[in-house]
Protein 1
Amino acid sequence: MTTPHSQPPQRESPAGVQLTATELAAHLARICPDHHLDLAGAIALPCALPHADRWTSFLAEERNAGLDYLARDPEDRLDPTRRHAWATTLLVFGQRYTDGWPAGDAEPSAGGPPGDAQGTPWTARVSRYARGLDYHDLLKSDIREAIGALTADFPGLAARVAVDSGPYLEREYAWLAGLGFLGRNTCLIHEKLGSGLFLGVALTNLRVEGLPPSGMPAVEPLYAAAPRRRRAAPVAPVTRCGTCTLCLEACPTQAILPTGGLDAGLCLSAWTIEWRGQAPAGRDADQGGLLFGCDICQAVCPWNQHAASKPADVQPLRAGYATLPAHAELSLNDLAELSDEDFAARLRRTPLWRAHPDGLRRNAERVLANLARGNGDGVEDPS
Ligand code: B12
Ligand code: SF4
Ligand code: SF4
């Protein structure tokens, strides 16, 4: 067992840094907790992706919600070595932003009662991932710091870090690296920590002996803050949804396909975060009381409810993801009238920045209109 005082042997070669999976696991176990990283695994590159067809059909059926960046260089998402021929191992990391969702979560963001414009804090209408600072900044810097610590042990290490920003199918890689299974809601779910996890990757020149062969998922990650609640299986399951269809039934816009996968063009997360224009005609009411993002298909998930009722014995959530105190100064009405200047001053380093001022004002106006019509829960107004 490696301790901070006894480093495993290092072997550096011009072609990369060689080590065994056991050695890498020991280093990650020492480094990850210091950088708020709850899960870590590795995949040897190049690597076949067992669900590549889901990616190609997603694009072919134009289920990408008009997000053009997804359709750019689609082949690169199936093989990172097309762009980075030097890369031999992909490290994959998971970081908690919430410890599950309690059963019957009453927050509008989770599909609970719509509340009212005055009494319900507007942050309860914002997806949990987006109430604090921007995870792109935080997780990327945490991974970079972890890579820095690894580089101190392996001076020849080269790495390129990405969180959302690169052409990587992060959920597929996280599953292959043993971080969890793929849910019907398409989220990567860890049996103990749930799906309230951000994912990030680092392309590296590590050469790791003992990783699973191409296209085979690891049964366990190399590092996990919490062990899974099951006995080690010989093969990692693709999914552990069984016969459950709760997310499919709860989705207010039927964005989850019965055959698996998502039509992002129907997802409230895309409407309220990514889209600059209006919701599809006649569907304003579907947004109900949700202001930014949507947690409904995660809040109903039994794996998340279990994560909330029996939280794992892990370090506290990263402080930066807690709801920002300054948010309490604003109301939903304020947001509907927020000036561009105020938007920039208050929200620049938060996920809400992604919606642009127009998008956030539009979202707030739509929620206010839904509440005024009495259909903040997304139910059609019969009048
Ligand atoms: C575009 C995008 C979106 C789009 C489209 C989402 C989608 N499902 O495709 C929109 C804007 C709708 C969106 C919404 C959300 N997103 Co988003 N999104 C992305 C992004 C940038 C690309 C996703 C992508 O490539 N989609 C294309 C599809 C085909 O790929 P995929 O969903 O990854 O699915 C792959 C596998 O999971 C598998 N698969 C898919 N479905 C199924 C189903 C079954 C049964 C099986 C067996 C396999 C399988 O096949 C696919 C190919 O490998 C990623 C970051 C990244 N670079 O990966 C973040 C990411 C997926 N998003 C994330 C988050 C947090 C969210 C939201 C929860 C935010 C919110 N609260 O509003 C929602 C969740 C909505 C949902 N149910 O997916 C996290 C997910 C973390 C996790 N634990 O899974 C990511 C990884 C960002 C991050 N770095 O942490 N997102
Ligand atoms: S995030 Fe909301 S709208 Fe999107 S698939 Fe999940 S429940 Fe449906
Ligand atoms: S709600 Fe049920 S079907 Fe959906 S992801 Fe969770 S376990 Fe799977």
Protein 2
Amino acid sequence: MIIDIDRLSPEGLEIERDFEFFNSELVEEEAVFLEPAHAEVTLRRTGDEILLKGRIKTKISLICCRCLSPFELPVDSHFDLVYLPEELEEEKEQLETEDLLKNFYYNRRVNLRKIILEQVNLTFPARPLCSEDCPGICPVCGKNIKEEGCSCDLKKDDHRFKKLKIYLKDNR
Ligand SMILES: [Zn+2]
Ligand SMILES: [Zn+2]
């Protein structure tokens, strides 16, 4: 969905719609959309500055980095962005520090689909976990402890070993 800056009325634009993306467009390799991304966006123009505010809701399936099982990540992301015309990008170095966080639009157009996708991609945790205390995989029998359970007799000493294994898995 491309928005022509010059055709944007002074009152701006309000958009509410679903965006469909390919799973391959997500930065997380194994991430899968469980539903389309529902976006509510307001676009306002002040001079050449575009203010984009909104909310995205969707559900994504991710793989837990500890137990390697898929889990559902609900996304409910709010964003508040400023887009400046591309001409200003060249002057970026002279812009104030706070301006460095600003984004740029090209050819007098804002690609809303691309922006929504970027925002979805920003919501991924660095280390996806099905739950904060996910016990991971048993270092002895290799079972998913939470899902399958395991009756291995992990002695106290082995406990450290287990932690190490989890650590290694997380940092692969
Ligand atoms: Zn897990
Ligand atoms: Zn076990």
